[in-house]
Amino acid sequence: MRAWQVRAKGEPEEVLHRITLDPPHPGPGQIRIGVTAAGIGLPDVLMCRHTYPLTPPVPFVPGQEVSGVVTAVGEGVDSPMIGSRVMAVTSFQEGHGSFAEECLAPASSAFPVPEGLTDVEAAGFWIPHLTGWIGLVDRGCLAAGEWLAVLGAGGGSGIAAVQLGHALGARVIAVVGDEDRGSFCRSLGAEETLNHRQGPLAPALRQLTAGHGVDVLYDPVGGSSAEDAAGALARFGRWLAVGFASGAWPEVHTHQLVWANASLVGVLAAGNSRAELDEIHTRLSTLIAEGRLHNAVTEQVPFDDLPGALQRMADRRVVGKMVMVP
């Protein structure tokens, strides 16, 4: 099979190599998936740079997100899964990611593709929307009518939070870097957009909310931008620490939280039981069926163009969600 393999530490265009491998054999509890589409995310860039916490030893095939058809199962997995159309989180930690024609995934991470999603849409759906649900619903307790500010709103994690927040009845402010990203986020349901390059965020967020402040801050960015935005937290506000796309976690000023009776809340899409994940899958599938979550894939990338696509993501030149189609 064709595969892209990382063999050293560096930028995607430098360290990704196209090679031919034998299809991987699923171990206990694993499935093998014939890849029809693979979501492209910032963690894949960070794995090339060896700055992602779950980066496997070289050489490895990256790619966290996948949709496709189950072609083989390992010990302990029901054989009727073979032939099923699924979306899954891959076994990328073991070096068997989705930037190949076949990959491995834990059977426990695979779910039926919801009705209404194509394989391309499904490949980039599960991780961002699962994280968004855990953050906004389970951890952030977002209520209809509340103000939700989404940092990095033009990226994969951000667009999921914008759509989901809008579907849940929140008033969404998309924080972006330019008007193209702002227009895209407004098409997904953002009520307001804010360009973080045009000045301090906290006073601008307070102005947009008529002085109320932000009830929930969805933060996959971290760094100084998050520290700035946190200054706009409303009374009883929740700052959801999701990621560090900026390259650094924010420094938290405790007195700032105390003055607002606000909370810093960690968000990690891991550790949930299968029953909890099935419930989230059902709720998200319902939103898709009702037309409240839509396709946010902005680009389909051919297999041979993957290194360049990842490099554009590394260079912050991507709007929306890219998916590789082998």
Q: Identify the overall geometry.
A: globular
Q: Give the DSSP E fraction (strand runs of 2 or more residues).
A: 25-35%
Derived from helix and strand composition plus strand pairing, the structural class reads: alpha/beta
Major pleated sheet: 7 strands, mixed
Looking at CATH, which topology of the largest domain would you report?
Answer: Quinone Oxidoreductase, Chain A, domain 1
Architecture of the largest domain in CATH? Alpha-Beta Complex
Q: Sketch the topology as an H/E string, one letter per element.
A: EHEEHEEEEHHEHEHEHEHEHEHEHE
Number of DSSP strand runs = 15
Give the assembly state of these chains: single chain
CATH superfamily of the largest domain: Medium-chain alcohol dehydrogenases, catalytic domain
Helix content: 25-40%
Q: How many angstroms does the end-to-end distance come to?
A: 11 Å
CATH classification class of the largest domain: Alpha Beta
Radius of gyration: 19 Å
Please give a structural write-up:
By secondary structure, the protein is an alpha/beta fold. The chain has two domains: 2-118 and 296-325, Medium-chain alcohol dehydrogenases, catalytic domain (Quinone Oxidoreductase, Chain A, domain 1, Alpha-Beta Complex), CATH 3.90.180.10; 127-266, 3-Layer(aba) Sandwich (Rossmann fold). The protein is built from eleven helices and 15 strands. Strands 3, 4, 5, 6, 7, 14 and 15 form a seven-stranded mixed sheet that branches. The chain has a six-stranded parallel sheet with strand order 10-9-8-11-12-13, with helices on both faces. Strands 1-2 form a two-stranded antiparallel sheet. Helix 11 links the parallel strand 14 and strand 15. The chain is globular and about 60 Å long.
